[in-house]
Amino acid sequence: MKLRSIKYFQSVYEQGSITGAARQCFVSQPSITAAISQLEQELNIELFVRHAGGVRPTSAADKLYPLAREMSDNEQSILHLFSDGPTPIPLRLGLMRSLGAQRMSELLTELTKRIDNLELTLVEPDEPCDARVVLSQSASSCEDFIPIWEDSYQLAIPNGWPLAGKPLVSIEDLDGIPFINRTPCDALDRLKQAMAVEGVQFQPRANIRTIEYTWPMVSAGVGAALLPDWQEIKHNDGFVLRPIANEKLMKRIGLAYNASRIDEPLIASVISVCRSTARQT
């Protein structure tokens, strides 16, 4: 009998679902399911009854759970007994792409300052994690969302282009100019829709995925691009940022976390840091 299987069983019992256990243990759902199945075969019992909302423990699971907790507690005691330093506090943080290196570094630095012995692991936002930094519309129905940043998207125009001399750009000004097309970007998608309504042609010159590659191409004169007003972008000397008339292209980015975990000390600390960052923005 593997200790890992016992730990997975304990997590499923406490979370009431395979999904919740996978998130808590930072593994895939099939790994949890396989471990439970193996444990059931070894003990020749049924531990959980599956239903639409998760799983329900059987009477056998109720008997096993106190022993599982005792084994888990003993494991932690052994690790603590022979540990040379403080026990690390693991935090898996999901990060969407194109967040802005400067502000994200500042947030991560603040997390490590405010949470003692933090062991931070950065993952994709769709992987199992404790919390996620994502767009507001990406938060699921079971997650609470705390706004941290609000990005305003403007047209980045290479210096020397006639259009760079205009303080305000109209949709008609965009007809046929070379664009650096970045996907996915819902702000750019909204601009394309507005251009199509006005019969204005969107002319892609280059197709890329990341913001970090976009503004050097604008500086080089490859094309114009729709970019957020990050500090590192606003202070670039190779192009100018201009608002587009009658178009409010905004994105809200913040912390999404499972609402049921709000009372956990780790999650509460992360929330506090994010709220503090939002006030300073």
From TrEMBL:
<keyword id="KW-0804">Transcription</keyword>
<dbReference type="GO" id="GO:0032993">
    <property type="term" value="C:protein-DNA complex"/>
</dbReference>
<dbReference type="GO" id="GO:0003700">
    <property type="term" value="F:DNA-binding transcription factor activity"/>
</dbReference>
<dbReference type="InterPro" id="IPR005119">
    <property type="entry name" value="LysR_subst-bd"/>
</dbReference>
<protein>
    <submittedName>
        <fullName>Transcriptional regulator</fullName>
    </submittedName>
</protein>
<dbReference type="Pfam" id="PF00126">
    <property type="entry name" value="HTH_1"/>
</dbReference>
<feature type="domain" description="HTH lysR-type">
    <location>
        <begin position="1"/>
        <end position="58"/>
    </location>
</feature>
<comment type="similarity">
    <text>Belongs to the LysR transcriptional regulatory family.</text>
</comment>
<dbReference type="Pfam" id="PF03466">
    <property type="entry name" value="LysR_substrate"/>
</dbReference>
<keyword id="KW-0805">Transcription regulation</keyword>
<keyword id="KW-0238">DNA-binding</keyword>
<dbReference type="InterPro" id="IPR000847">
    <property type="entry name" value="LysR_HTH_N"/>
</dbReference>
<keyword id="KW-0010">Activator</keyword>
<dbReference type="InterPro" id="IPR036388">
    <property type="entry name" value="WH-like_DNA-bd_sf"/>
</dbReference>
<dbReference type="InterPro" id="IPR036390">
    <property type="entry name" value="WH_DNA-bd_sf"/>
</dbReference>
<dbReference type="GO" id="GO:0003677">
    <property type="term" value="F:DNA binding"/>
</dbReference>
